[in-house]
Amino acid sequence: MSQLKVYQYPKCSTCRSAVKWLKNQGHELELRKLVADSGLELKKFFNTSGEVYKSLGLKDKLPLLSEQEQLELLAGNGMLIKRPVVTDGTKVTVGFKEAQYSEAWSA
């Protein structure tokens, strides 16, 4: 089977279930701690311009939620996750802003 790179939050039960399932299917996994390895704050992973974020009123609610509650929101609805997530194995960017990409990814 193929090796998969899994960006996860180890305390997230959904992530743990996915890792278990993939291992049971015979995949070799490279587990990456999405938030911890990124060096970014958790709030940076929310797609703040998305319809779901706005319809749930997360601009006001997010600061009141625990880290676990925020992670459960992200794990439960992929539309809340800012994308793309780009990594070279040492640094991570979330979303796209040309200036940010120039700083992080210029040769």
From TrEMBL:
Domain of life, per lineage: Bacteria
N-terminal signal peptide: none
SUPFAM superfamilies (alphabetical): Thioredoxin-like
InterPro entries: Arsenate_reductase-like, Thioredoxin-like_sf
Pfam families given in the database record: ArsC
Record PANTHER family: ARSENATE REDUCTASE (PTHR30041), PROTEIN YFFB (PTHR30041:SF8)
Stated family: Belongs to the ArsC family.
Listed name of the protein: ArsC family transcriptional regulator
Source organism of this protein record: Paenibacillus donghaensis
